[in-house]
Amino acid sequence: MAASVDNRQFHLEPSLNGVVRFKSGATHRSDSPVRTFNFTPDFTRSNQKPDPYTMEEDYSSDDEADYKDLIRKGNSELEPSILDPRDEGTADNWVERNPSMIRLTGKHPFNCEAPLPMLMHHGFITPVPLHYVRSHGAVPKTSWSDWTVEICGLVKRPIRFTMNQLVNEFPSREFPVTLVCAGNRRKEQNMVKQTIGFNWGAGGVSTSVWRGVPLHLILKRCGIYSRKKGALNVCFEGAEDLPGGGGSKYGTSIRKEYAMDPARDIILAYMQNGELLAPDHGYPVRMIIPGFIGGRMVKWLKRIIVTTKESDSYYHYKDNRVLPSHVDAELANAEGWWYKPEYIINELNINSVITTPTHEEILPINSWTTQMPYRLKGYAYSGEGF
Predict the structure, then answer these.
(1) Which CATH number do you get for residue 120?
(2) Residue in 98, 111, 273, 320 annotated catalytic
(3) For burial by CB atoms within 10 Å, which of 9, 165, 209, 232 has the most?
(4) 320 is catalytic
(5) What highest taxon heads this organism's lineage (predicted)?
(6) DSSP codes, 71-107
(7) Which residue is catalytic, options 181, 184, 265, 280?
(8) Active site residue 63
(9) Catalytic: 152?
(10) pTM value?
């Protein structure tokens, strides 16, 4: 699995059936703020004048990959998502989920990965219901029509964009990106020495085709200031109300030079595998930062703040760090290890996993099996996604 691809645009239709909508099923909830949503975005922009802040080269070509058949095939082989009885009595009791997903943190919040054989069966493109989920709290109930993303801080023109503005006023990019939780395979690490993180298996990795608006174009539209004027970091803030730090939003940041680099393909994504985002994956809009860990890709995005300092979010500092082996949580709090910049995780590390033979699988050795080929299977992704 590759964590990013060349600087291309893959031409999926607005959705695989031409209309962006969520379908009702036997377990559909009439009070769901997302599942009853039926919207056909205008992707044409045919009557709009070119905006000098958002003009971008067209990277399309005749030989670009078409993933529509892979997505359709994967979806056709899935058992339907349901209102899982395990979510009864929680704030997520309205969210439909695939019952095969392995829950890693009990009933709530929802953190899960697909069984490895199922993940490998679907190959390069992961069906949305099998995409791993990392959440710190309840899924926000959101509405496309009411949602805005505020751009503020060190910009000349602070703006609050609606979802329709993001879709219709900017060119979109669409390409496959592999998302990886920084804790992928942590269970193996915890078997050697217990960390403060929970036990991810090797399924904390998934690949989808994402569509969204390039971040650098939005920041150009808003007139981001220069480094000389203090614009050094771009912070992202989500909508969740979380307990960390006595109560906070999920937030993080990246350096300005990353945010403004068109080659990094950083987007505000509103579609995944040809459909609007699912609730667990940040509906209606989230960050996608190819080559970075999933923890930097804020879901349910509400604010982008250009600042001099890094994000001051509790989760920016207390999540996604690798500290020296002698530093436990108590020592890290006492001596401020969380705030040492050399221990932050941003770019992905090189990783590879053998999935066949499976864990504890027994391979018989006899006169018959030694004459037969055995196919080893697995996945790999490269450092920083390139």
Answers:
(1) 3.90.420.10
(2) 320
(3) 209
(4) yes
(5) Eukaryota
(6) HHHHHHTSPPPB--GGGTTSTTTT--B-TTSEESSSS
(7) 181
(8) no
(9) no
(10) 0.84
